[in-house]
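DM from R.C. (forwarded with permission)

"hey, sorry to bug you on a friday — could you get me a structure for this? deadline for the figure draft is monday and I only need the backbone to look sensible"
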Amino acid sequence: MSETSKFTDDILNTARQRAESIVQEAETETHRASDEAKVTIAREAEAVVRNARADADAVKRRYISEARHRSKLREQQEKERIVQDVLSEVRKRTSALAGDEAKYVPLLTHLIETGLRELGDKTAIVRLNKSDLERNVLGLEQRINKSLTQVKVEWSKEPIEAIGGAVVSSLDGRIRIVNTLDQRFEALEPKLLIEARTSLFGE
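My reply, with the result:
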């Protein structure tokens, strides 16, 4: 073998060794990078799963909360409907009372007398609804004159808008005593609401 060939073989061997070393280093680096990538990917995947679970839990809690809220709202609405039905029934019975002359006339007389006493004038105007004006006003007047002999009552021919009862006012109209069944019902309504809720729902 000539010196040139030997020299060439040495260079080639060195190059091969260097190439093998480079390949081994590259493979080692590739394996290391691959392992690091696997670890990183696994870590990121775990983070994604954790976040997904947290998001899912948050969504679940929100849906449960919203469902409870809707259920509570429906319950409250249903309770309110029942209470309003009770009030409606009380109002119907109040209206029916005005149609029962045996019970209503003494009550109407009482409401008028109460208004006259509260007004305290010697002359007063009494206003009734259309139905009561068509009743025997003279009979009412006789009833009132027996108990309030010092008061002169003028019966207005203009009807009021009310289920029943009366509005008693001074001659100049500056003082008005509203003693209608409607006013009595409205005054009692807050108490009726409380009593109905307590009786029906224990609230």
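R.C.: lifesaver. The chain has a mean pLDDT of 81.
me: no worries. Helices lie at 3-99, 101-119, 130-133, 137-147, 181-201.
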